[in-house]
């Protein structure tokens, strides 16, 4: 298992080095140099998404589960989880669906706000996702494009957050070795939901 | 296949046990403790107690949060059919389907674990006795042949194996589900307890804690359950019964045990002069070399279909269709339980209550159909029981109504409503035409023929399922549940992972493969004590019965050896 993650990291580095000099990487580098935004997760390189796309995913996740008095999706690095699944687990079809969903999501965001999602303020981000959520709830049948992409992100964010170390141990109730089974106790004695 | 044997000097033992799962582990322990030098042949790798690489890993420590890549899944095309076993945390207990193919005239989901301990590592652990209602069923309604034994023949063996394995449960005094030699029961939670009272009062049926091989207290040097519910990964505390934690260490302690991993038993060596097996032919799974091993007795405990394969592949002049085939029943009467039908509902009376710990069992509702005159059903014979549990939904519930942001975050940190679900497990009749046979249309990695399955559930099972659904709703409603939903998704045979019947016990060599002591009629020093021996399937989880029959057969075999009868 260690080998596997080492290989995927190596693979990731290889992919990144191939991208150097391409328009995409150059523009990302330029954006950073021009001081627009500091990278959200500087110590890590995505395997499946571009750095730019991954930052968008991180903003989406953080808007879905924000930092409050407890850590949020960005603290739990939910975007890494999404990248890991997309790179290692998903079928080609599923990968394509995710990519085209993200593209449509960005297109819709630009037509509404004339800006990429990552460039919006926190309130606008929330407003946009809220709107997608309302639309997606209204549609009983299966959805596609930006709506389905949003629902996807919502489920992935919840799962990624709740199975992360930070989410499980700091936001949910975590008890790796209970030692006993108490079948019927007052809810207040737990005061939250078990992580698993 | 040619075997270049080095001759008799190679290795000779008092007994050979083929397989190291639940049945093989018991055979090894009993034979070793009775003083026999015993060779256990296991086709897969060695797994010592404690060799459970994922047992202590948290979700975030597992690659892809426990999910297996689409690419890797190709190796588990059939094993993945359960939907819950091929994960990073448990995939290493399941076979590579590319190396171990089989053919399906009709779909059969054959779940296998090739390693020391076999499926005793990832079994469901539910442990129930059969009763005389089960042992008499074939004789009474005429499906299949009569079991050659009755409850009185195995009762003391059930006592014995329960005492060593450690089964927690509650005695209920029911004729259809005999009481046992139990450790203190794990408790029902408050919703289950309330359902138990209401179902008993309104319908006269019993809801009890699922009797499982989980230690509610430490015994025999094995630790008590820590309520992590990660049994399928292997238990570092030895707190559930597995060969690795229980029977094999006991066998090893005698000094009489030899385990040889990577040893695929291809066939038995049969001597027509003595009408006995003299040993086994083995293919080394790593080197592909062939070996012969010799012994006075052979216990086939390679799983129902594994043992059947070996018998079918032991072709002799006298038995061209395999040793044990003279009755025409070898490979036939394949059974599995049919399940994946039931109901679930919600209840709002206990929202101020919760629990702590992850109990590795649920509840069990023993059979209540066709057990006496008052419970006779016109539509079907035999019966079924339910397994289920009540719990509060966690973060994984659909939180569709919650928007996003702080509101959603708040919602995922609170438990959802209580719900209770139950799934029925029903008896499958022994049909001669449900069968496996050998085929050379394809071969395994070692050039052996493969099994070809032709098995289906039939009318009695289908009629029973209607009732399984209706009765589940009836009980949930009687217990005060709302929004009760049913489901019915039969899937293919095999998915119950209770393969049985392909070398059945019986009273006559004309209609059965084994006698009342699990001896092959055609070769009396060969015993088959795994699921293959089952004359009917009953509806209870069968492993405890394999344990009892194995211990009983081992006791008989050693006595017969001493009398020089075999």
Features:
heterodimer; A: 196 residues; mainly alpha; 9 helices; 62% helix; 3% strand; globular; B: 566 residues; alpha/beta; 8-stranded mixed β-sheet; 6-stranded antiparallel β-sheet; 11 helices; 19% strand; disordered N terminus
The amount of beta strand of chain B, in percent, is 15-25%
Order of helices and strands of chain A: HHHHHHHHEH
Beta strand count of chain B: 18
> What proportion of the residues of chain A is helical, as a percent range?
55-70%
Reported for the largest beta sheet of chain A, the result is:
none
**Poorly predicted runs of 5 or more residues of chain A:** 1-7, 9-35
Question: How much strand of chain A?
Answer: under 5%
Number of domains of chain A: 1
Radius of gyration of chain B, whole Å = 24 Å
The total of beta strands of chain A comes to 1
Count of helical segments of chain B? 11
Instruction: Give the integer mean of the pLDDT values of chain B.
Output: 96
The main pleated sheet of chain B reads as: 8 strands, mixed
Secondary-structure-based class of chain B equals alpha/beta
Which protein chains are joined by the largest interface, and how many residues does each one contribute? A-B, 53 and 46 residues
Overall mean pLDDT score of chain A? Answer: 84
| CA(first)-CA(last) distance of chain B | 29 Å
Q: Give the fraction of residues assigned to helices of chain B.
A: 10-25%
- Specify the structural class of chain A: mainly alpha
**Count of DSSP H/I helices of chain A:** 9
Q: Gap between N and C termini of chain A, in Å?
A: 22 Å
């Amino acid at each position: 298992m260690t080998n596997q993650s080492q290989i995927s990291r190596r693979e990731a580095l290889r992919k990144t080095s191939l991208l150097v000099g391409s328009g995409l990487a150059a523009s990302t580098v330029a954006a950073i140099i021009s001081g627009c935004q500091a990278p959200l997760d500087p110590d890590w390189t995505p395997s499946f998404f571009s750095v730019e796309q991954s930052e968008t995913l991180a903003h989406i996740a953080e808007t879905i589960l924000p930092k409050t008095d407890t850590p949020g999706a960005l603290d739990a690095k939910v975007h890494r989880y999404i990248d890991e699944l997309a790179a290692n687990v998903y079928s080609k079809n599923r990968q394509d669906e995710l990519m085209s969903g993200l593209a449509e999501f960005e297109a819709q965001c630009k037509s509404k706000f004339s800006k990429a999602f990552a460039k919006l303020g926190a309130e606008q981000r929330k407003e946009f996702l809220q709107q997608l959520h309302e639309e997606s709830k209204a549609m009983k049948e299966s959805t596609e494009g930006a709506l389905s992409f949003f629902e996807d992100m919502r489920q992935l964010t919840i799962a990624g957050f709740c199975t992360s170390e930070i989410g499980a141990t700091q936001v949910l109730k975590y008890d790796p070795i209970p030692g006993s089974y108490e079948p019927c106790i007052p809810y207040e004695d737990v005061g939250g939901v078990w992580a698993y | 296949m040619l075997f270049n044997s080095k001759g008799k000097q190679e290795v000779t033992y008092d007994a050979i046990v083929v397989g190291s799962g639940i049945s093989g582990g018991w055979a090894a322990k009993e034979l070793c403790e009775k003083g026999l030098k015993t060779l256990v042949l296991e086709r897969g790798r060695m797994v010592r107690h404690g060799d459970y690489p994922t047992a202590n890993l948290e979700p975030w420590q597992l690659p892809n949060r426990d999910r297996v890549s689409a690419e890797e899944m190709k190796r588990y095309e059939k094993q993945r059919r359960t939907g819950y076993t091929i994960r990073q945390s448990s995939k290493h207990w399941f076979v590579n389907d590319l190396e171990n193919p089989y053919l399906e005239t009709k779909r059969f989901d054959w779940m296998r674990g090739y390693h020391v301990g076999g499926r005793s590592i990832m079994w469901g652990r539910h442990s129930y006795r059969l009763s005389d209602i089960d042992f008499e069923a074939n004789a009474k309604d005429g499906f299949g042949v009569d079991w050659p034994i009755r409850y009185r023949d195995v009762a003391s063996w059930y006592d014995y194996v329960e005492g060593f394995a450690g089964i927690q449960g509650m005695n209920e005094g029911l004729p259809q589900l005999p009481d046992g030699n139990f450790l203190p029961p794990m408790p029902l939670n408050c919703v289950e307890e309330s359902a138990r009272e209401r179902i008993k009062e309104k319908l006269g049926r019993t809801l009890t804690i699922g009797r499982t091989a989980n230690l509610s207290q430490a015994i025999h040097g094995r630790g008590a359950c820590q309520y992590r519910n990660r049994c399928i990964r292997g238990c570092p505390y030895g707190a559930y019964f597995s060969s690795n934690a229980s029977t094999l260490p006991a066998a090893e302690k005698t000094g009489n045990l030899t385990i040889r991993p990577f040893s695929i038993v291809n066939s038995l060596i049969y001597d027509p002069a003595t009408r006995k097996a003299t040993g086994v032919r083995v293919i080394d799974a790593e080197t592909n070399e062939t070996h012969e091993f010799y012994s006075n007795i052979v216990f086939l405990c390679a799983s129902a279909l594994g043992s059947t394969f070996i018998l079918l592949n032991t072709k002799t002049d006298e038995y061209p269709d395999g040793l044990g085939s003279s009755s025409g029943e070898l490979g036939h009467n394949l059974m599995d339980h049919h399940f994946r039908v039931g109901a679930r509902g919600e209840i709002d009376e206990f929202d101020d209550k919760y629990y702590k710990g992850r109990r590795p069992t649920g509840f069990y509702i023993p059979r209540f159909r066709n057990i006496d005159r008052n419970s006779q059903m016109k539509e079907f014979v035999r019966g079924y029981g339910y397994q289920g549990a009540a719990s509060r939904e966690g973060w994984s519930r659909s939180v569709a109504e919650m928007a996003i942001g702080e509101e959603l975050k708040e919602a995922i940190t609170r438990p959802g409503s209580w719900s209770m679900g139950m799934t029925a497990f029903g008896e499958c009749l022994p049909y001669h035409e449900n069968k496996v046979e050998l085929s050379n249309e394809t071969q395994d990695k070692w050039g052996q023929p493969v099994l070809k399955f032709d098995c289906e559930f039939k009318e009695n099972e289908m009629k029973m399922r209607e009732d399984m659904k209706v009765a589940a709703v009836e009980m949930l409603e009687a217990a005060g549940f709302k929004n009760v939903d049913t489901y019915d998704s039969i899937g293919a045979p095999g998915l119950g992972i209770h393969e049985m019947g392909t070398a059945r016990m019986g009273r006559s060599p004309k209609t059965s493969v084994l006698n009342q002591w699990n001896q092959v009629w055609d070769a009396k020093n060969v015993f088959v004590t795994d699921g293959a021996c089952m004359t009917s399937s009953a509806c209870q989880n069968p492993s405890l019965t394999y344990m009892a029959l194995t211990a009983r057969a081992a006791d008989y075999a050693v006595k017969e050896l001493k009398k020089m009868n075999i």
